[in-house]
Amino acid sequence: MKKNSYISLLILVTSLFSRISAAQENLIQNISARSIISLNGRWNYIIDPYENGYYDYRREAFDQSKSGTGGYFDDKKQEDKSELLEYDFDHSPTLAVPGDWNSQVEKLDLYEGTIWYRNKFTASPKQGKRYFLYFGAVNYEAHVYLNGKKLGMHKGGFTPFQFDITDRLKAGENSVVVKADNTRKKEEVPTINTDWWNYGGITRDVFIAETPASYISDYQIQLSKGNMGQIEGFIQLSGAEKSQKVTVEIPAAGIKTTVKADTSGRALIKLAVNNLEYWSPESPKLYDVTISTSNDHISDKIGFRSIVTKGKDILLNGKPVFLRGISIHDENPLIAGRARSEGDLRMLLSWAKELNCNFVRLAHYPHNEEMVRLADQMGLMVWAEVPVYWTIAWDNPETYKNAEAQMSTLITRDKNRAAVIVWSVGNETPLSDSRYTFMSNMASHVRSMDNTRLVAAALEVHRKGFEVIVDDSLGEKLDLASFNEYGAWYWGGTPKELSKYHFNIKYNKPVVITEFGGDALAGFHGDEDTRWTEEYQEALYVNQLNMLSKIDGLRGMTPWILADFKSPRRPHPLYQNFYNRKGLYSETGKKKKAFFILKKFYDDTEKKYNIKSYGASK
Ligand code: GCU
């Protein structure tokens, strides 16, 4: 092959590749506010445990072959009776999207592997517009094809991704095929072992968004760190005409400003503000914000609040606050499965509100964007986390890249949500030098992307007798002394014995207990020393709250957990039946006795802090 045709081929391949992978990187901000074609609905599916639709019998990937064809992504139809075709999406059953496959088809309840999804849709792309195919989340590894051509691959079961399909979208019928694989692997994030159900599939919204050729791809508009009198941020333009004038309007705050984006499409804003109504759980004020250029505009609802720590205090808008929280999994307990709709999400947050919470820990992975927007509206502060959970492959650079990418996407997606006050880099990760390096790098990466929020993790603790010692060196890198403790459950001892414990916490930082709790089977009653009874869980809460209240730096908690949830690690036939039963609500929505203990504690704490902040109970 002549030298220059070899080079042009090389350029072609690399640009193709860079276009394929790059398309995922620049997540478009607030994309669901664009004009969209929803692809939610029934998708045909093929179960493929041997990945027969992806690899040939020599385990060579079809989409890497010379022709780039041969796999199920071709979405072929038998054209003549003698043709051999061993799959047929049209006659294949369907699954609801968004939705995990486990809760929809009984034989898929414990299925881990590949399932192919196919959706046919009609489009009429317009000249001068751009089109993006967007996925809210696919668990875990997704290979995406449009009209038989590969768009790219995405890893991470809880973060959104999109592909630029402008020059791939056809007028008329299109076929999108997704290979979704939820196989657990040691080097992935999360790794093999977790305490939640490995729901697979296209679990969140799918749509095609339309933008002008030059469009507003990203923006951050928040209060400056530690300065409640200044709004600061950026607007990023993408497409042909990057260097344009950009206008930001916040009518209700009397703000209208125009700035010029530079040649890379970046425009910075810094605005002095006064008389802003700050966002807080008591009054979750969201302002209508519009950003516009000569040929594009986008509107959003944004709240403004400041969150800092001062010694052992957490200050929200300059006032001490106690984080009255609860931990939540992204699961609808009533119909066990990933939350499927805004209604499911609102139900979970309303249950937290009934507990008189002002804070939720969205464990242990990025929840649906809609969940965070609802928290913004409903007045619930949010702890957001990536699934760096238990024993990750700390020494594997690919694992770190994956974890950091999930963190970047989470921050990119939710950075304009006032509700989000904490970015968490992980949960219960065992001490080691490589873990320390991994987690420290994650923490500094978060700060490099967003310095306006707190950075934390569920730190490791250890015990000497009844002394609980919190001196995990990772704590130096973080803003909170936050940790999980399971007195009277995994630590043994009965609830009454909790009073013997005392805490030795190395850090002069706010203490947030990110988990405590115990299992109770709703409706199972007995004395308070009998495990699995509501009385045991109730006594555990009474004594835990007494014990924790003695910690002078205690400034918040997110007990484990709002509702019973499915876990493959919980097989006890009488008490668990594959449910973790530490919920304060059962999987049927019944409040357990411990619910009322925590609610009373939060009502009292709220009064105490109102007096602290406002000199009188509100
Ligand atoms: C752990 C973990 C949770 C788990 C809980 C439990 O600390 O962080 O994910 O579900 O404890 O064992 O119930």
From TrEMBL:
User: One biological process GO term for this chain?
Assistant: carbohydrate metabolic process
- Report the InterPro entries cross-referenced here: Beta-gal/glucu_dom_sf (IPR036156), Galactose-bd-like_sf (IPR008979), GH (IPR017853), GH2_Domain-Containing (IPR051913), Glyco_hydro_2 (IPR006101), Glyco_hydro_2_AS (IPR023232), Glyco_hydro_2_cat (IPR006103), Glyco_hydro_2_N (IPR006104)
List each copy of the Glycoside hydrolase family 2 catalytic domain by range. 310-603
Molecular function (GO) terms for this protein are:
hydrolase activity, hydrolyzing O-glycosyl compounds
Every Glycosyl hydrolases family 2 sugar binding domain range? 38-212
Which residue ranges does the record assign to the Glycoside hydrolase family 2 immunoglobulin-like beta-sandwich domain? 216-305
Which range is the signal sequence, renumbered to this chain?
1-23
The record's annotation in SUPFAM superfamilies points to: (Trans)glycosidases (SSF51445), beta-Galactosidase/glucuronidase domain (SSF49303), Galactose-binding domain-like (SSF49785)
One family name in Pfam for this protein = Glyco_hydro_2
Q: Which UniProt keywords apply?
A: Glycosidase, Hydrolase, Signal
Specify the superkingdom.
Bacteria
Concerning its family, UniProt says: Belongs to the glycosyl hydrolase 2 family.
Q: What is this protein called?
A: Beta-glucuronidase
- Protein species of origin: Arcticibacter tournemirensis
